[in-house]
Amino acid sequence: MTIAPTTPDVRRIGGRIGAEIVGVDLSRDITADLGARLNTALVEHKVLVFRDQHLDDEAHLRFAGAFGPLTTAHPTVPSVDGQANILAVQGGEGARANAWHTDVTFVVAPPKATTLRSLVIPPYGGDTLFANTAAAYADLPEHLRLLADRLWAVHTNDHDYAEHPQFRTSEAEEYHKVFVGQRYRTAHPVVRIHPESGAPNLFIGGFASSIIGLSQTESRDLLRLFQSYVTRPENTLRHHWAVGDVVVFDNRTTQHYAADDYGDLPRKLHRVTVAGDVPVGADGAKSHVLEGDEAGHYTPQAGRVSELASEPSTQRPPNGTAGAPAEAVA
Known about the structure:
Elements: E1 9-12, E2 19-22, H1 32-45, E3 47-50, H2 57-65, E4 87-90, E5 113-120, E6 128-132, H3 133-139, H4 142-150, E7 152-156, H5 170-179, E8 185-189, E9 191-193, E10 200-202, E11 208-211, H6 216-230, E12 236-239, E13 246-250, E14 254-258, E15 268-274, E16 288-291, H7 305-308, H8 326-329
Parallel strand pairs: 2-3
Antiparallel strand pairs: 1-2, 3-13, 4-15, 5-13, 5-15, 6-12, 6-14, 7-8, 7-11, 8-16, 9-10
């Protein structure tokens, strides 16, 4: 098989997030040097766009693998038939991700990166928006940064996809049952330190249900306040899909949102995620499981959770919050 060129042409798209990669054919083998250069560009720009690629599943898996070991498709949602690492992202009424979120933060080792390739795209609508959560943290006034640095949030998959009654359908209810077939609750720092760049970012999003040690009302207000910085227009990028596009985003320091503005038109993407590490907060404490297992069937990185469990208590949030009763953090 022919080899992709080793020097990609990186063209910035947005002022704070996003770059288009030109001159790289992802259907070819990706050398270690090219993979390293693409990873460097991903850490810097957060979202990389590759136009007119038209990959098959094999090439998609090979491309994603250039960024590291792969997860399986999803902790609870079935994969594409015969492809354990590929998740079909389709625009059915039950599965539209029209809420800002970071992928799979309800497990202790969320993905490092998510890759998407477009198969069927509606003639209008269906864009995906991305947000730079490191820029959001940098935008916070000093007093809010100091507060955020100390906070921990509970992330869970048991949340309401159809929070507005008019969007509750039988399909949405069935999808929710599958999505929460195994319930996960994980404590993550509200401010995560990026393992490669060292930059702090707001690690929240749609799966963050509450702030440890605070009431639901207080949690909701604080999460909404921090989230408003994430989704400031200056921190976002809107990608208009065409068939054949491939997009990869750094799941450790972004959120994304799929715009639900294409009615009943078909829209289908394939998703492959790259295994990530256990998040670390501003004080050096690491995320930990509150309910459910570490999803070892989903990510090879989760095997380290058994090691984390034996580490000193200084690796947990201060003030005893890690040991709080479930009622206090749910």
